[in-house]
Amino acid sequence: MELLKKKIMEVGRVEAGGVLKVDSFLNHQLDIELLNEVGKEFKKRFEGKKVTKILTAEVSGIAIAVLAGQYFNVPVVFAKKTESKNLDKDTFQGEVYSYTKEKHYKIRVSKRYLDSSDHVLIIDDFLANGQALLGLKQIVDEAKAQLVGAGIVIEKGFQKGGQLAKEANIHVESLAIISSMEDGKISFKEPSQE
Amino acid sequence: MELLKKKIMEVGRVEAGGVLKVDSFLNHQLDIELLNEVGKEFKKRFEGKKVTKILTAEVSGIAIAVLAGQYFNVPVVFAKKTESKNLDKDTFQGEVYSYTKEKHYKIRVSKRYLDSSDHVLIIDDFLANGQALLGLKQIVDEAKAQLVGAGIVIEKGFQKGGQLAKEANIHVESLAIISSMEDGKISFKEPSQE
């Protein structure tokens, strides 16, 4: 998606530890106009697929999932990372390993909001190590729902998430695939390689 | 807002400890169509006011703020609750007291995304004790930005947040004001009392 890649080139900053900062439009300040285009693009990429629910994980997946939800005309459910008295006791759970924090944590969705009749599209901001995506897939599987695929805004193509998703048979559509961030220079995979 | 009150009456559940569960449409599963109407209503309530930015706090303010952002045509910024390597070091901070957890925590916005030229509309899902709202106001004040007001989806009118906001000179527009949840029965303030 050219508009998105252009934005990443303009404002994305590569920081120590291989962090790509895109907080001016994607995960702190939100560029609603651009993220609306992202939502439309997801609709186009999954055209013709039956989707009854969009699933994402808090926090930074929510904005994109909600804007995309408008084009799919379906409810959005976000998995919660924290145990909270506001969350039902009866949940589907996924386990996520955080490389940053070097520990596992759980993400949870109340059993009220997913069931075996659902066709679920996962939407998230990043695909890097693939751990969040696999945790979300676990929730879909636990609910015995159908996983339609995953719409990803930015995939770090040089990390293993894409490969893990392929092995798990997840149809991934990434709108921008970064092939390298070496020396602070962001390069994208050519569309023919995507 | 009648549509919203109707939804709360239909699906809201009053639980132990005075918790109003509206997670079927507002803070776990998200009813995008309804929340879009909420966004439009905020636009109507603040018609004619200059707004350059919408500010909310993670997690459950994000969905509403993003959908509302479409009607105001401005970027949305969400304050972060957790220190993260993805957040700039240089931040505006607000202090929030959590009655549930009985402790203070900080919410933060990078100084890149608010400044003294901004006219800020705060949007949040709930107004109860008013602590989150006052923390967000602190951030706006620190940035020396103009606070336009606060758009709230559900106000618990029997808690002190509304009064505190009035004392702090914040123009609050709440789309549904609950006057009582005694014995599990939800009552709203009459529009004339709002």
- Weakly predicted, low-confidence segments of chain A: none
Strands side by side in the biggest sheet of chain A: 5-4-8-9-10-11
- In DSSP terms (H or I, runs of 4 or more residues), the helix count of chain A works out at 5
Largest sheet of chain A: 6 strands, mixed
CATH architecture of chain A: 3-Layer(aba) Sandwich
Q: How far apart are the first and last residues' alpha carbons of chain A, in Å?
A: 11 Å
Shape of chain A: globular
CATH topology of chain A: Rossmann fold
In total, the number of strands of chain A is 11
- Following the backbone from N to C, one meets helices and strands of chain A in this order, namely HEEEHEHEEEEHEHEE
- Beta strand % of chain A: 25-35%
Q: What structural class results from the helix and strand content of chain A?
A: alpha/beta
CATH classification class of chain A: Alpha Beta
Q: How would you state the average pLDDT of chain A, rounded?
A: 94
Kindly report the oligomeric state of this protein.
homodimer
Number of structural units classed as domains of chain A: 1
Of all protein chain pairs, which has the greatest interface, and how many residues does each chain bring to it?
A: A-B, 38 and 38 residues
Roughly what percent helix of chain A? 25-40%
Radius of gyration of chain A: 16 Å
